[in-house]
Amino acid sequence: MSESLTPPSSLRYRVAGPADVPRLLDLWTQHSGWGAITMTQWRSWYEEAPYGPAIVSVAEDEDGQVVGMNVMLPSRVCVDGHVVKAVRPSAPILHPSLRVGGASAARSPALALYLAGLATAAATGHAVTYMLPDSGWVPFISRAARALAGLPRHRITTGCLSLELATADGSSHPDRLLTEVSTTFDDELAGLWRAAVRQFPIRCAVERSPEWLAYKHRGDLRLKVRGPGGALAGFLAIGTRRAALTNAFSATPGDLPDVLRSAVAWLRRASHGAHPAVPAALTALDHGACGEACRAAGFREIDYRFGFMADTLDQDAVPLEALAPSAWYLASGD
Fold it and tell me: For 293, phi and psi rounded to 5 degrees?
């Protein structure tokens, strides 16, 4: 295949099938920048996901070569107490011949891939799309949306917080709480999430079901925080590869700062014991109730921005205004 630019008009966009997977793995390995992916990993991540296989859109050139792909992972979102089908698009993977600066944003193959997948998502009953892309995508999408319909209408960037474990204040650790490593995803966690939705209250969020938590955080360090009598007070997940607080929630908003303090104290102790999964510092998304709790627990703002986008795919089921960024409870692992 030539390395020269393939004009977007000459590309064909469609949803991938099983026969495409070897070519998708090759495109990923050679051009994603994320390293190699095996067939076993692909199946685990995208074919055996909790809510069914991912929707994968592909771009083919005139020679039938796959030169672009986008993965949309089915999930569930809780909106005003109702759980609806949703999709979370990932970043597109493009052959270098398609990555050319100066082209109109509205003619981008990346956006054509997104819209192809979104059409399938809407046709299969998914009511919401959301994503947490690199913040640079937000102005790009905003420019393209002037000429191209179907792009996310809620678009923001939000800040990032960080906490150095070595300098974290250990004196504020609440003695009444006990932090432990979590190895199970069960009805206890489901009950904690239901309590959080009621008590915060949480108007809009990725539904944190046990099966979703087990899938999303299978490689993370997971912690449960218990109160007096052993009652579950909070849950946290820490992505050790990214050194990020990928999830955190508690039964009530008042509990969350102390849940975080208890977890930080546990992490400090574990780091002194050379625990292999404990990073030296943690980052967290600074948004809404979770961001406020992180600040209360000692996290401080750093120079980084997250992007967040959301839209409805079914205005009757989920009105656009219900998905306003201010309504969302977010963590970086969402």
Answer: -65, -40
Report whether pLDDT(4) > 60: no
Asked if 204 and 329 count as a contact pair (C-beta separation under 8 A), the reply is: yes
What does the pLDDT read at residue 271?
77
Rg (CA), the chain: 21
Parse the chain into domains and list their residue ranges.
Answer: 8-126, 161-329
DSSP letters, 216-254, are HTTTSEEEEEE-GGG-EEEEEEEETTTTEEEEEEESSTT
Does residue 87 contact residue 75 with C-beta atoms inside 8 Å? yes
Whether 8-126 and 161-329 share one fold: the answer is yes
Question: Do the strands 128-131 and 82-89 form a parallel or antiparallel pair, or are they unpaired?
Answer: parallel
Q: How far apart are CA 92 and CA 69, in angstroms?
A: 6
CATH topology for 8-126 is Aminopeptidase (3.40.630)
**Cβ contacts of residue 317 below 8 Å, gap of 6+?**
84, 127
**Cβ-contact 19, 66 below 8 angstroms:** no
Q: 161-329 has which CATH code?
A: 3.40.630
d(CA 66, CA 60): 5
102: pLDDT strictly greater than 60: no
Cα separation, 115 vs 144, whole angstroms: 12
Q: What is the dihedral of CA 308, 155, 150, 141, to 10 degrees?
A: -90
Contact 303, 165 (CB under 8 A): no
Give the CA distances from residue 204 to residues 81, 82, 159, 200, 288, in Å, rounded to whole numbers and listed in that order.
8, 9, 19, 11, 11
pLDDT score for 205:
99
Query: Average pLDDT for residues 317-332, to the nearest whole number?
Result: 98
The structure's pTM equals 0.91
Rounded to whole angstroms, how far apart are CA atoms 312 and 295? 31
